[in-house]
Amino acid sequence: MHSPSSVEPVDFVISWVDGNDPAHRQKLARYTSKVKDASCDDVAGDTRFANIGEINYCVASIHRFARFARQIFIITDNQNPHLEEFLSQHFDDLIPIRIIDHSVIFKGYEEYLPTFNSRAIEAMMWRIPGLSERFVYLNDDFLFVAPCTVKDFFEGDSTVCYADWYPTYFAKFLRFIKPKKNGHKPVGFKDSMLNAISITGSCFRFLYLAHTPRALRRSFFEKFFNENPDVLIRNIRHKFRDAEQYNSQELFYMTEHRSGRCLVRSPKTFGLYLKPRKGGDYVRNKLERFDRNHRALFCCFNSLDQACIEDRKLVMEWINRRISL
């Protein structure tokens, strides 16, 4: 039976888009036609919006391994993944699911819609009506692969962060020497974290966030962005990924760590990460290593749409086995 924590509720938030939807593709085309290099993966390439059903397995894994979740919010742009039929085939007791449109979290900021930018959406998701103080954020390509408890994300007043420390000077050096691709320097994951620590205050190291579910606190973002509205606008004014944007979760974790309220755990122990596009025996070998890691709690299959048919089938068989579907 679904029995969420009766003490302090924990909600789950997932950002999702169906890039195969003709209406979405038409809307996207109206804006990408005005943007140079929009087809690049780091800006608005097809893989950023591809949908091959990952959301089904993401939510199914929450039902299987994170039963403490009070409810699941799925942030979309006038879309609905219609998960109930799929989930009801495997679970008798469903965690409540609510679809949240971009227009809801951007209320009062409608001038910045539509947006096709995950960093903009992440900066606004704390505005979901009824969202619990403590919540866990996931991309739709994240999965739970073993039973989790609230303590895997929150311990007392502290929030758990799955990351490794990374030297700031080295990250800045790599950004400086990064070669241009398609006429511009690619907007990288690490760059968004560097931009975040420039806001919180530069230091000699920062938390290199793993591709894992992220434990967050709603009140932090409400207070921070109410006090720094210009910082909020800096992220949400871009319809597509931009080099000036920051990672809002990095901003949260670095601030909390300085206050002694962030517990850092190595993702190498608890997280699994796969890039199916690599080809060869990479996928098969990586999945075998995954199975040998008995402490792993979650995994991320990045850009599964770019994998070959054989590797995609291999991954889906593995996922179905791990979450017992």
Low-pLDDT stretches: 38-49
Shape: globular
The side-by-side strand order for the widest beta sheet comes to 3-2-1-4-9
Query: What does the average pLDDT come to?
Result: 88
Broad structural category: alpha/beta
The portion of residues forming beta strands comes to: 15-25%
H/E element order: EHHEHEHHEEEEHHEEHHHEHEHEH
Spatial gap, N to C terminus: 18 Å
| Cα-based radius of gyration, to the nearest Å | 19 Å
The CATH topology turns out to be Spore Coat Polysaccharide Biosynthesis Protein SpsA, Chain A
Molecular structure report:
- The longest helix is centred in the last third of the chain and has 14 residues.
- This protein has one domain: Spore Coat Polysaccharide Biosynthesis Protein SpsA, Chain A, CATH 3.90.550.
- Strand 11, helix 12 and strand 12 form a beta-alpha-beta unit.
- By secondary structure, the chain is α/β, with parallel strands linked by helices.
- About 4% of the residues have low confidence.
- The strands form 3 sheets. Strands 3-2-1-4-9 form a 5-stranded mixed sheet.
- The radius of gyration is 19 Å and the shape is globular.
- The chain contains 13 helices and 12 strands.
